[in-house]
Amino acid sequence: MSERYDVIVIGGGAAGLSGALTLGRARRRVLVIDGGEPRNAPAAGVHNYLGQENTAPGELLRIGREEVRRYGVEILEGEVVRSYRDGADLRVGLADGRGFSARRLLVTTGVVDVLPDIPGLADGWGHWVLHCPYCHGWEVRDRPIGIIATSPMAAHAAMLWPQWTDDLILFTNNQRFESTLTKINVVEGAVTKVDARGVHLEDGRFVAREALVVQTSLEARAGFLAELGLKLTPLEMQGVTVANSIAADPMGRTDVPGVWVAGNVTDPMGQVITAAAGGMKAGAALNMDLLQEP
Questions:
Q1: Are 62 and 18 spatial neighbours (Cβ–Cβ below 8 Å)?
Q2: Model-level pTM?
Q3: Same CATH topology for 4-113+217-291 and 116-213?
């Protein structure tokens, strides 16, 4: 492995590999460093990705890695724990002590879904505990589904999910909602735990459900950027902070010279195909930025 690259891509998911592919085809020297924790790992398949519908997430990444290697892109498994400026270069440090330098960084580390603190949710995450009807709605269509409210965003879910099932219950979990939700079956009371059979309530009731919907908060994987001065920007919906991400222009350029972003780390609501497109755009813009360097 070379120690100095044109671009180091931090994160080897759809956005990172797409950016690396674009840069590799532009004959740039590129290193992809991947921590091996893709957000969609629990899911059975990727959806809404034309030509890759139902492809397992791990298989999509395997194909992507093979493709970028054909263009000379190097891939390294490791965790980046810091990044900082080193003269004219940007340098990254790994947890195992290794370090690499580059003229530019492309950060595509994505986000982490922070689940509500209800026992059982983590056990079913990505299987029978879901968050997005566009990602999972077809797979659970016409089945008994429950929405567990943990914020006002549950009202948004309650508007969407009836399109996929008539057997829908909103568990208020002691949250208050407007009367506009009167057409939806509502169960009052605090939720104490869930399992693959359904929802357990504080008063001892049990309501059978085959799938559950929750609202997660999305935290960008960006702690290693602190020394470069990149800060997270909150994203609010209906008065609630639902995500933190790194702000960038439409091509992925951040406020820190030399640092670019793509995928969920800057577009928390984007799906896999959106992340791949963002990586391609950032890769092309990065190449032009390098060409204009004195």
A1: no
A2: 0.93
A3: yes
Per-residue pLDDT reduced to its tens digit, 103-154: 999 999 999 999 999 999 999 999 999 999 999 999 999 999 999 999 888 8
The string of DSSP codes covering 60-114 is HHHHHHHHHHTTT-EEEE--EEEEEEETTEEEEEETTS-EEEEEEEEE---EEEE
Q: Among the CATH numbers 3.50.50.60, 3.30.1300.10, 3.10.310.10, 3.40.50.720, which is that of 116-213?
A: 3.50.50.60
pLDDT in tens, 70-97: 999 999 999 999 999 999 999 999 999 9
- CATH class for the domain made up of 4-113+217-291: alpha beta
Domain residues of the chain, as ranges? Answer: 4-113+217-291, 116-213
Strands 99-107 and 4-10: parallel
HSE-up (13 A, CA, CB side) for residue 53:
7
Beta-carbon contacts of 173 under 8 Å, excluding residues fewer than 6 positions away, are 148, 149, 150, 189, 190, 191
